[in-house]
């Protein structure tokens, strides 16, 4: 077993460590990459650590930079000093909010710099934000590898941003299919209408289009009115639009039918109680929450955007719709409302699809190999007996 100082350190730089899909994936990688291969540290630009409890390794240190809003040269200096002290072999940054710090890592002497793109935020939905894309392009000399999580993002980096193909290394997101699994078979239904639980998980932000989902729910209630039908809607996630969504639900008189609990730490258990998973986002890459829902045996109705069509196989594991067309979303969900057999068939096919191509083990192995490949290319020391040794 190598001594701790002999094991290369990966410093992960994120904007924050909240309860999001990116942070879930990062925690899975830190927990599962063999300790004899790599050590890890997490650097947060802002001190949000709601998701830190997901990291199970006791040797992972967190460092907060307390970056103020806007440009902050002082944050670059603070990071430079931290990197000089930690001496990581790799800096791994995530999304555009952290990309500029690859230049700082280069100046601090970090041998390998890797930048991951997990999706675009609400100000660059179409991927054509001129300033952000220029930043991505200008920083290419300081970055050894760009890591998109979907084929859609890989093509965008290559053809829209202009990143050389040799610098692009896609690693698909993966999910723990043991943790996210279907609920045990239910007892036969009684005569009374059984609730149809329609749910989504995501930050209450414009890009997730939860307001559009409420429009869809209104159409469904008109089509399947109570008491003959018992439709329920759940929107799990915190964010700036949560209170306006709650106010709209109250004004519509839906408080008994729509639940907005905010962020939750028991998403795996919540998913097992649902009938249909819906993701009406305006933009996505390879959303981990769809993988979690499919692994849980749920049929999925989602926006036809980004890498989503690679996950949701039309007519086999779910349905796709244009996020700007509430009626199309309502029609897709309606196909499941009265057909438990279709829900079960698409849910089972979705779980099989995730097990075949989106396992957490494959994702972790991909990052492990990526780190080792670039350290070896730079002639850096690898851990004795570790990856690639």
Plain-language structure description:
This protein is of the alpha/beta class. It has 2 domains: 189 residues, Glycogen Phosphorylase B (Rossmann fold), CATH 3.40.50; 162 residues, Glycogen Phosphorylase B (Rossmann fold). Helices cover 38% and strands 15% of the residues. The protein has 14 helices and 12 strands. The strands form 2 sheets. Strands 3-2-1-4-5-6 form a 6-stranded parallel sheet, with helices on both faces. Strands 9-8-7-10-11-12 form a 6-stranded parallel sheet, sandwiched between helices. Helix 7 links the parallel strand 7 and strand 8. Helix 7 packs across helix 12 and helix 10 crosses helix 13.
Please outline what is shown here.
With 389 residues, the chain is of the alpha/beta class.
SSE arrangement:
Elements: E1 9-14, H1 21-32, E2 39-44, E3 61-64, H2 73-86, E4 90-94, H3 96-99, H4 101-107, E5 112-117, H5 130-138, E6 145-148, H6 151-161, E7 196-201, H7 210-223, E8 231-236, H8 242-252, E9 258-262, H9 267-271, E10 276-279, H10 288-295, E11 300-303, H11 308-311, E12 318-321, H12 326-337, H13 340-357, H14 360-377
Order of helices and strands: EHEEHEHHEHEHEHEHEHEHEHEHHH
Q: What is the count of distinct domains? A: 2
CATH topology of the largest domain: Rossmann fold
Structural class from helices and strands? alpha/beta
CATH architecture of the largest domain: 3-Layer(aba) Sandwich
Low-confidence stretches: none
The CATH H-level homologous superfamily of the largest domain:
Glycogen Phosphorylase B
């Amino acid at each position: 077993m190598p001594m701790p100082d002999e094991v290369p350190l990966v410093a992960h730089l994120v904007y924050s460590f909240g309860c999001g899909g990116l942070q879930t994936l990062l925690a899975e990688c830190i927990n599962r990459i063999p300790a004899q291969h790599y050590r890890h540290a997490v650097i947060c630009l802002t001190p949000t650590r709601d998701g830190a409890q997901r990291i199970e390794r006791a040797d992972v240190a967190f460092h907060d930079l307390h970056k103020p809003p806007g440009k902050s040269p002082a944050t670059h200096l603070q990071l430079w000093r931290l990197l000089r002290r930690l001496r990581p072999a790799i800096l791994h940054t995530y999304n555009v909010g952290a990309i500029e710090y690859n230049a700082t890592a280069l100046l601090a002497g970090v041998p390998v710099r890797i930048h991951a793109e997990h999706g675009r935020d609400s100000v660059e939905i179409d991927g054509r934000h001129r300033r952000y894309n220029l930043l991505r392009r200008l920083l290419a000399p300081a970055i050894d590898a760009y890591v998109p999580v979907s084929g859609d993002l890989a093509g965008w980096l290559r053809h829209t941003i202009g990143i050389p193909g040799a610098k692009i290394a896609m690693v698909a997101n993966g999910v723990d299919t043991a943790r996210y699994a279907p609920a045990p078979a239910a007892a036969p239904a009684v005569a009374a209408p059984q609730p149809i639980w329609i749910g989504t998980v995501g930050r209450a932000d414009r890009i997730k289009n939860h307001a559009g989902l409420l429009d869809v729910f209104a159409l469904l209630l008109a089509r399947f009115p109570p008491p003959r039908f018992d439709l329920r809607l759940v929107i799990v996630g915190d964010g700036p639009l949560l209170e306006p969504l709650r106010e709209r639900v109250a004004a519509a008189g839906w408080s008994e039918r729509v639940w907005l609990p905010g962020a939750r730490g028991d998403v795996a258990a919540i998913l097992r109680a649902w009938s249909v998973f819906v993701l009406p986002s305006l933009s996505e890459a390879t959303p981990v929450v769809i993988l979690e829902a499919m692994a849980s045996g749920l049929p999925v109705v989602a926006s036809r955007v980004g890498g989503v069509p690679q996950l949701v196989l039309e007519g086999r594991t779910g349905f796709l719709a244009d996020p700007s067309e509430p009626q199309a979303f309502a029609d897709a969900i309606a196909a499941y409302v009265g057909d438990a057999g279709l829900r079960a068939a698409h849910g089972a096919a979705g779980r099989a699809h995730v097990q075949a191509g989106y396992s957490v083990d494959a994702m972790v192995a991909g990052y492990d190999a990526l780190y080792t490949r670039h350290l070896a290319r730079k002639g850096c020391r690898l851990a004795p007996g570790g990856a690639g040794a």
